[in-house]
């Protein structure tokens, strides 16, 4: 295994397709088959998700690994059309870890879980030898109830639909990158936050007009777009000038040679919606914290071979190509 297999890019997708799906999703009815953020169980009434968190540094502007662990699993449930209810919390702690830092992290877990209305229902703690796990790793698993007001799925997407994003992109990835390299950027702050207010706004519109939602974590918005349209039989166009990127993030992207389209978020939603409701949803998102840059970034252009075209300022077009390996290590 290499770091690339865990990076959310092309190498990760190939490894999952060759090593994971044949073993655990051999049949069309497997809940794992489509690799959802959260799987539907019990005839569609329950959703189940899990995620692990190994971010370095563990504390950053806008949060820490504890807040991130709750948001990550809650958000996966929420964008899958779920109402999060319960989380597990598993800690792998390195011998000698600072107890004061661990207290801050656990406080952030409690504060975030309470804000999301979820209960920490079970958990586990392992302490391993010095040098075995880089301080602290966290795993959370979540259970939620399916929101009857939402009917989401790639198969619901139609030609002419709008592609929306709920706020600025790349904030989390570039904040972490700046910290690692000792770069000081004014206004840099992770977007780490629950997306429940955004998904509840979508639920309020409801019905089949909200087609699909996903949170753009590893691989960023670009990886989500590839996930949506690859093999779908639908093509899409993304207007690069419309991508909502803060000036501080864009500056750092230029410094480090990073495309903000593939920079991870931890509190944003990418949504495909009927044009008749996209304006209403964007206005609702803009009223929420972090949502002032919510916007339409593109559209579903029609049937095709699943190509996403990036349209530049001067009319040029290029095909979206997801990086093969790991663009930014350990951002979550």
Helix and strand layout, with pairings?
Blueprint: H1 10-24, E1 39-41, E2 46-53, E3 59-60, E4 63-64, H2 65-79, E5 82-94, H3 99-116, E6 119-128, E7 136-146, E8 162-165, H4 171-181, H5 196-205, E9 210-214, H6 220-229, E10 234-239, H7 247-256, E11 270-273, H8 275-286, E12 295-303, E13 308-311, E14 317-319
Parallel strand pairs: 5-6, 10-13
Antiparallel strand pairs: 1-2, 2-7, 3-4, 5-7, 8-11, 8-12, 9-11, 10-12, 13-14
Helix pairs in contact: 2-3, 5-8
Key structural traits:
332 residues; seven-stranded mixed beta sheet; alpha+beta
Report the major sheet: 7 strands, mixed
Strand percentage, roughly?
25-35%
Q: What's the tally of helices?
A: 8
Count of DSSP strands: 14
| Oligomeric state, counting identical vs distinct chains | single chain
The topology string of helices and strands comes to HEEEEHEHEEEHHEHEHEHEEE
Distance between the termini: 19 Å
Which runs of at least 5 residues are low in confidence (pLDDT < 50)? Answer: none
């Amino acid at each position: 295994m290499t770091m690339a297999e865990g990076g959310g890019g092309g190498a990760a997708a190939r490894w999952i397709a060759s090593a994971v799906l044949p073993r655990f999703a051999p049949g069309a009815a497997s809940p794992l088959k489509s690799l959802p953020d959260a799987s539907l169980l019990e005839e569609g009434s329950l959703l189940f998700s899990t995620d692990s968190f190994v971010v370095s540094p563990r504390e950053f502007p806008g949060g820490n690994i504890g807040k991130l662990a709750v948001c990550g699993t809650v958000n996966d449930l929420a964008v899958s059309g779920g109402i999060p209810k319960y989380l597990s919390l598993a800690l792998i702690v390195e011998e000698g870890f600072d107890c004061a830092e661990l207290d801050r992290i656990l406080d952030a877990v409690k504060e975030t879980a309470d804000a999301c209305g979820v209960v920490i229902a079970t958990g586990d703690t392992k302490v391993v030898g010095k040098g075995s796990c880089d301080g602290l790793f966290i795993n959370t698993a979540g259970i939620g109830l399916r929101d009857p007001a939402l009917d989401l799925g790639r198969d619901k997407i139609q030609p002419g639909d709008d592609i929306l994003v709920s706020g600025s992109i790349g904030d989390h990835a570039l904040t972490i990158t700046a910290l690692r390299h000792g770069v000081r950027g004014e206004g840099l702050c992770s977007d780490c936050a629950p997306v429940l207010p955004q998904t509840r706004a979508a639920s309020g519109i409801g019905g089949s007009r909200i087609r699909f939602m996903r949170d753009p974590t590893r691989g960023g918005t670009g990886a989500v777009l590839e996930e949506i349209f690859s093999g779908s039989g639908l093509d899409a166009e993304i207007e690069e000038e419309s991508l909502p990127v803060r000036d501080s993030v864009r500056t750092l992207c230029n410094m480090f040679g990073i495309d903000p389209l593939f920079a991870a978020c931890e509190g944003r939603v990418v949504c495909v919606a009927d044009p008749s409701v996209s304006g209403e949803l964007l206005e609702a998102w803009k009223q929420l914290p972090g949502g002032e840059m919510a916007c339409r970034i593109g559209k579903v252009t029609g049937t095709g071979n699943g190509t996403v075209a990036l349209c530049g300022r001067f009319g040029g077009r290029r095909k979206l190509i997801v990086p093969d390996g790991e663009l930014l290590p350990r951002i979550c």
